[in-house]
Amino acid sequence: MTLINTEVVPFKATAYHNGKFVPVSEESFKGKWSVVVFYPADFTFVCPTELGDLADNYAEFQKLGVEIYGVSTDTHFTHKAWHDTSETIGKVKYPLIGDPSQQLARAFQVLIEEGEDAGLAYRGTFVIDPAGKIKTIEVHDNGIGRDAAELLRRVKAAQYVAAHPGEVCPAKWTEGAETLKPSFDLVGKI
Fold first, then answer.
1. pLDDT digits (tens, 9 = 90+) for 7-52
2. Sheet of 96-98: strands edge to edge?
3. What's the rounded Cα separation, in Å, for the pair 47 and 145?
4. Residue 184 confidence class, pLDDT cut points 50, 70, 90
């Protein structure tokens, strides 16, 4: 079953954010655009490059009214330790949610259930609209890192489509580029 256009299921978790442990729930995703980024584990190799890339682009997401949430099946205590000891993760200003019960990874369908990585999450990225509905999903095998610039483009496209009913963003669409208005007359003309 796809999660597209479904609401985030109820949950309660704790995040490490701005030097504090803070509660997070599905309500945290409502009223603004949110990006939830699952990654396998703290103190690893590809994960800090991704979280650091998001940290470097965080101001751009914030300008769009977007909050980012990093999630792994580690605890919020582990997130704090990683933040305190890694120069790259020390740049992270967005919440890092602990999911040791694996409830979020399972709900977002990114939990690895079997094999040597059982209990970890795949690299899942979810763009959530202000109503709490999932609008985009991207899931990678854990050896393939993601790109914050591409995620930023997808967020802008999702926001554009939400603000302009009846219009769609074609492949490689960027902010300010032409969109499409699906119609009978357009069939076969692209």
1. 999 999 999 999 999 999 999 999 999 999 999 999 999 999 999 9
2. 20-25, 12-17, 96-98, 66-72, 33-38, 123-128, 134-140
3. 8
4. low
User: Annotated catalytic residue: which of 13, 24, 36, 47?
Assistant: 47
CA distance 63 to 26: 22
Distance CA 16, CA 23 (A): 9
Token pair for residue 90?
């020390």
Cα–Cα nearest to 96, from 154, 11, 157, 21: 21
- Helical axes 46-63 vs 148-163, angle rounded to 10°: 40
Q: Is 47 a catalytic residue?
A: yes
Phi, then psi, of 81 in degrees rounded to 5: -60, -40
